[in-house]
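Sequence and fold
=================
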Amino acid sequence: MRDPVAIIHRNLADAAVRRALPKKAQPYYFALSYGRHIGYQYDAKGKFWVARYLAKTSKYRRRRLGTVAEEGRPGLTYDDAVQKAWEWFSTARIPSSAPFAKPISATRHLHICAFGTEPTVGHALQEWVAWKRLAAAKSHFETALSLINHHIVPRLASVPLKEFNGAILREFIKDVLETAPKRGNQRLGPRRSLNTIDEESLRKRKKTVNTLISILRFSFQLAWENGIIETDKPLRCLRKLPNVDRPRTIHLSRREARKLLECCREDVRRLVLGALYTGCRATELVRMLCRDVGRDGYGVYVAPVKTHRPRFVFLPDEAMAWFLDLIKDRQPHEHVFLRYDGSPWFDRSYRYSFATAVLEAGLPEGFVFHSLRHTYASQLIQSGTTIFAVAEQLGHADPATVLRTYGHLSPQIRESEVRQRFTVLDDANHSSARSRKAELTKWRSSLHGGEWNAYAEINSPHKLGR
């Protein structure tokens, strides 16, 4: 069993949380702001409060603040420790070497205030923000706004809409493609010319460009409809880059799924099983409550996250029994999936432990938690489930999204449909085929090659996770 992750979500002020944490050499940290943490250290020498900050060298500097006051022992309370930590953070020496401390939250504001009577791209973006703040799901709004602030605002916000044309668009696209992708708060990599970028990286950047063009298109349309501009000429200048969507091919066979489960810490294993049983996104799982299990049917209710549309995911018997056991004797308002310390997961706290399990299982480096959703969908499709049923289970409003994403599996889908739906024509031939089922199965598997064989276990009597 590996050590628990270093940063926990639940407030360290709770003595019950601290008691649930096992001894280990490194402290458990709770983020106070970006690059600033309060820590609880529990080792053979005792229990201590520590603080750390992230320096410009990308390394943390740490200080012990004092012993923990609990169970009648003198020392610092959590509030005392936090106050001492901020006193240390605010000392004169730290700001010169540490990054700016900022709150840990996604921005919900446009990084420009368009002014003047001349309509600009910035004015159109303000229309987009005003509408999407009301209409879009929170996670979608914040993700798109981050892209706007990073890519569009510094390049186009001051451009007058009447001057926007194809040449400006081409220069914008080239600039975005040659700029290194933004990864969280990491420093951007060097700019690279298009002929030096590998095919897969270029495809991903083109996909980002198309997302930005969609945002510009809707912004310009709102500006035209709301009378900010008198012509749709800027709207007609926008063109997307072709052929950048590619089927997602990283998904697991049942054998690989079992290997991953064996390498997971127990609390992460529950989360992975939940994803493989339901096809839910990580955010949907960590927010799922006990009252959602068995609500309205034989499955789980999934509250809206990426869109405003809730959905119900039907479960097989194996999964239904597992979920019922998971919530047994628990309160309806509690979260279904809990961490090792009994606290709820938060949106990204599983990543480090999951990535470690992926490496131990020998899976591809590009396999992320969302790939479990693709594994779920791919298994259903290759078993003959209709595109419409898979779309409903995944929560896609348009079944065409599923077809685009998993179109590379269409030969298996078509074959499965024909084999299951064809009505018996000749009784003698039908009986002959049934008696030779093993022979035909072996021959069919050899025709499909390695990729088919990797999924030959989908009809195995062995159940997932058993």
